[in-house]
Amino acid sequence: MTTSSYKKAYTQLKVKQTKWRKFIKHNAPKKRTTGAALKKCTRCGRTHAHIQKYGLNLCRTCFRECAPSLGFKKYS
After folding, report:
1. pTM for this structure?
2. CATH number for the domain including 65?
3. Segments of the chain with pLDDT less than 70
4. How far apart are CA 65 and CA 54, in angstroms?
């Protein structure tokens, strides 16, 4: 199936509300309660190299950019 045919199916489903709700119910992404997908950087949304200490919730690259303004000093 091409992307244009997917768009056509979406428009046909949106007209029929009950079928659209059933489609969304069964094809919606699963709600996560644990795991790495919940720990995201608040600036860029990256999930890897996440710094959660002190409630920062930043990835390492964003932390390097924001560290001087947050009051952290580089010692080496």
Report:
1. 0.55
2. 4.10.830.10
3. 1-5
4. 17
